[in-house]
């Protein structure tokens, strides 16, 4: 009996524990996670009036684990012309008036303090104001710059006149009161504000055909334009919304200018050429003539053709031995230069005083037919000359010195030998005589006595 009671109590305890655990998890699962805020993917946009458009507003609550993730949308102050549906789709009607429209995204769930979280999306509707533009006044201001006023422009990196842009009131008087334009220094200027900006759109000569202009190029008016092709260029000024530069609010009439290159290219030897002039050529070592000249005052992007002739000093006179245009070597000088303009100096070209034996005379002509000059004030053709002396190879020079030393030694030995021979021939040899020791030995021999007979 006791065992049965114990078993029943044990089962009751287990059931009770499971029930408590289940209720605990249920209570934990039912705990509310409050909303802390609403996040918008995009907070602002600009549209032009007079056209119907839609914008899909993307909003989410934070945190992502919030119990209630729902969001409602509304137009603040109920301004007409702009509506938003329950999914956040904003519709702008064609008759909506210019101005600012605030769309409010509100969380369905509450924050911990019981209030709802909100985020605001700003829609700016702006009207084009091309009809307000005073094109005549604009051209008057631009033409105050003499360089702009000229019908023909030099090919360069060109900037339209800038002075008139420093006056906010003047700019507004030209483009119209609807323009939101302020420059630094104006008492109402806000460095963080996004004011309207003025751009230059242009067509290159090759991009306008049969009256169909392609205005594909655009840059801020304060930046330069590379006028790199000869011909008629077309320009116009456009005003773009400061918050969305894809929105063009105003366009000026087009104006044209003819661009050409009338500048003579300023030309001089490059640093590598100057170095080669100082180092000279080495006998037996080839040198390929370079055409990479230096253009210190190159203000245009015209391509340039560099040609040259190679000259050799013969009997004190410079003689042309190669022409790069004809790729032709003067007869009789094939051993000094190849048909590709490679110089191979010989030992006979070596000069102890480093006098130039070869020189390269360059000629430069740009794509518009203007030849190279020495400076921007000159009109006389300048032909840079690279003068080159010839030196002996270091190893060959050392060998020559060794040979010279041996020659001197051999000459000295030969000279001494000659002197010795002369001395031997001129001195008479003495008669052979016996030495005192030999005479004494001879006397002893004659004076020998036979003492054995006595």
Radius of gyration: 51 Å
Mean pLDDT: 85
Using DSSP, what is the number of strands?
Answer: 28
Question: Structural class of the secondary structure composition?
Answer: alpha+beta
Show unreliable segments.
18-29, 448-454
How does the major sheet shape up?
Answer: 6 strands, mixed
Number of helices: 7
Provide tags for this entry.
454 residues, 22% helix, alpha+beta, 31% strand, six-stranded mixed beta sheet, 7 helices
Quick rundown:
With 454 residues, the chain is of the alpha+beta class. The protein has helices spanning 2-29, 135-142, 146-149, 168-175, 271-279, 394-426, 436-446; strands at residues 37-40, 44-48, 53-56, 59-62, 71-75, 82-84, 89-92, 99-110, 116-126, 152-154, 157-158, 197-203, 208-209, 212-213, 217-220, 225-226, 231-241, 244-251, 255-260, 281-282, 287-288, 304-314, 317-323, 328-329, 342-343, 358-366, 385-388, 390-391.
């Amino acid at each position: 009996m006791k065992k049965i009671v114990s078993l029943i109590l044990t089962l009751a305890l287990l059931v009770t524990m499971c029930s408590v655990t289940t209720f605990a998890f249920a209570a934990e699962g039912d705990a509310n996670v409050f909303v802390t805020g609403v996040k918008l993917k995009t907070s602002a946009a600009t549209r032009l009036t007079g056209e119907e458009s839609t914008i899909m507003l993307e909003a989410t609550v934070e945190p992502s684990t919030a119990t209630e993730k729902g969001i409602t949308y509304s137009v603040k102050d109920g301004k007409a012309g702009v509506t938003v549906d329950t999914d956040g789709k904003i519709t702008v009607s064609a008759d909506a008036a210019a101005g600012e429209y605030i769309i409010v995204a509100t969380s369905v769930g509450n924050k911990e303090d019981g209030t709802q979280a909100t985020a605001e999306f700003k829609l700016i509707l702006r009207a084009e104001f091309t009809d307000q533009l005073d094109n005549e006044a604009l051209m008057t201001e631009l033409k105050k710059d003499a360089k702009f006023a000229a019908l023909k422009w030099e090919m360069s990196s060109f900037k339209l006149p800038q002075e008139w842009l420093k006056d906010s009131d003047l700019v507004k008087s030209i483009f119209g009161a609807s323009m939101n334009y302020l420059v630094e220094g104006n008492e109402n200027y806000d460095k963080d504000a996004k004011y309207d900006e003025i751009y230059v759109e242009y067509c290159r000569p090759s991009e306008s055909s049969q009256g169909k202009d392609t205005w594909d190029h655009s840059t801020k008016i304060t930046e330069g334009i590379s006028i790199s092709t000869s011909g008629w260029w077309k320009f116009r000024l456009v005003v773009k919304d400061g918050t969305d530069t894809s929105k063009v609010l105003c366009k000026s009439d087009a104006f044209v200018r003819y661009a050409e290159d009338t500048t003579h290219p300023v030309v001089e030897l490059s640093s590598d050429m100057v170095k080669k002039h100082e180092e000279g050529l080495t006998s037996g070592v080839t040198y390929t003539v370079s055409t990479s000249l230096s253009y210190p005052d190159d203000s245009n992007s015209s391509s340039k053709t560099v040609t040259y002739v190679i000259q050799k000093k013969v009997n004190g006179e410079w003689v042309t031995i190669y022409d790069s245009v004809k790729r032709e070597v003067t007869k009789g000088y094939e051993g000094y230069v190849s048909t590709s303009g490679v110089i191979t100096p010989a030992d006979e070209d070596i000069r102890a005083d480093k006098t130039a034996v070869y020189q390269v005379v360059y000629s430069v002509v740009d794509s518009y037919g203007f030849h190279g000059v020495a400076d921007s004030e000159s009109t006389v053709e300048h032909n840079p000359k690279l003068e080159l002396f010839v030196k002996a190879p270091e190893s060959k020079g050392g060998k020559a010195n060794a040979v010279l030393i041996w020659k001197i030694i051999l000459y000295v030995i030969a000279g001494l030998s000659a002197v010795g021979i002369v001395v031997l021939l001129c001195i008479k040899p003495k008669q052979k005589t016996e030495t005192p020791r030999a005479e004494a030995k001879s006397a002893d021999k004659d004076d020998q006595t036979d003492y054995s007979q006595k």
